[in-house]
Amino acid sequence: MTNQTTDGQRLHGPGLIDVRMMRVAHSSFRRELGLSPAAVRAVAAGDRRRTSIVADHAALFLSLLHHHHSIEDDLLWAALLERVPGELAPLVHVMQSQHEHVAALLDQAHGALETWRRTAATPDGEALAEILSSLCTALFEHLHAEETHLLPIMARHITAEEWEEFTAQGMSSIPKRLMFLGFGMMLYEGDPEVIGIEMRKLPAPLRRLLPPLGRRAFRRYARRIHGTPTPPRGIGAVA
To answer: Domain of 57?
Structure first.
């Protein structure tokens, strides 16, 4: 995978903080949320068991996305605004408006999700799927802008300590019971070099256990949610 954004700016290297893990996280959001409208629409009317399974999946990624954006605002965006306001000036309005749009659609999705979970009715599932599709359109646009314009600024201006805190808080949002699944999701589509760097921070026993157990957990989960252990890669990514 490329070490640069689409406009050629580097995301790691001498004098830079390696922020490529953000793109690994983004790939999971793109894939799992991007596939969620089809998963919702595939549930038969009145199938409460299947409704609960798919609703839990959508709720998990809506929650993870909300947490991801919250810690971006709290730990990264605020620090950069104080540190390099001039560089961020052209981005402030666009990034904030995109965040607000995504946040509004997240709220709508949560409401529609709970309705569908309660009724298991096809019209309510379709309403949820439509909101999720709109969310994905807005989210993919935002993630592309963030990767193109914001990540290079982060690489130059945040500290190693700030990045470590951000990644630690991001990982803490994944329930401990889903640790292997979360790692498997990253392995499925993430940059192997970047994941290898993160792996080297772990104790040796975990470095041996995580890859096989993570891959197995993801295959099992993907088959349950998407009907295949190998769902499409590259969803929402800009060529």
So the answer is: 21-173
Tell me the pTM. 0.91
Q: Which of 131, 133, 140 is nearest to 108 (CA)?
A: 131
| Inside any domain, residue 145 | yes
Number of domains in the chain: 1
Q: Crossing angle, helix 48-71 and helix 204-226, to 10 degrees?
A: 130
Each residue's pLDDT tens digit, 7-62: 446 787 788 999 999 999 999 999 999 999 999 999 999 999 999 999 999 999 99
**Under a CB-based contact definition with an 8 Å cutoff, are residues 52 and 117 in contact?**
yes
* Other C-beta atoms lying within 10 Å of the C-beta of residue 218: 24
In the block, residue with structure tokens 């946040």: 103
Q: What is the pLDDT of residue 239?
A: 54
b or e along 48-75 (b: 16 or more beta carbons within 10 Å of the residue's beta carbon)?
eeebeebbebbebbbebbbebbebbeeb
Q: Structure tokens of 231?
A: 């769902």
* Mean pLDDT confidence for 87-111: 92
| Contact predicate 30/237, CB 8 Å | yes
Tens of pLDDT, residues 67-78: 999 998 888 888
Residue 139 has pLDDT above 90, yes or no: yes
Task: Give a three-class secondary structure readout of 98-163.
Answer: HHHHHHHHHHHHHHHHHHHHHHCCHHHHHHHHHHHHHHHHHHHHHHHHHHHHHHHHHHHHCCHHHH
For residue 155, give the CATH number of its domain.
Answer: 1.20.120.520
